[in-house]
Structure to design on (78 residues):
């Protein structure tokens, strides 16, 4: 069975998102498609991703501060 979604575009658009954020974007896209009486499509999912920036962007300063704090204090999670 061949996917009707552009997985490469979706993967690129989801760069930096956590799994939970991607899941919520899919759910949001499903609700949006249903409200528009449209099919769930790559474009609808891309729209949902673009309308909700990932925490890795919105919280980048705090993440960087935590990384600096953890240096020499925590065991790396390689």
């Amino acid at each position: 069975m061949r996917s009707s979604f552009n997985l490469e575009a979706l993967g690129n658009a989801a760069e930096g998102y956590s799994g939970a954020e991607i899941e919520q974007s899919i759910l949001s896209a499903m609700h949006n498609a249903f409200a528009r009486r449209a099919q769930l499509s790559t474009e609808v999912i891309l729209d949902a991703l673009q309308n909700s920036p990932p925490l890795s962007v919105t919280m980048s300063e705090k993440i960087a501060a935590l990384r600096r704090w953890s240096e020499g204090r925590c065991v790396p999670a390689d």
Summary: The radius of gyration is 16 Å.
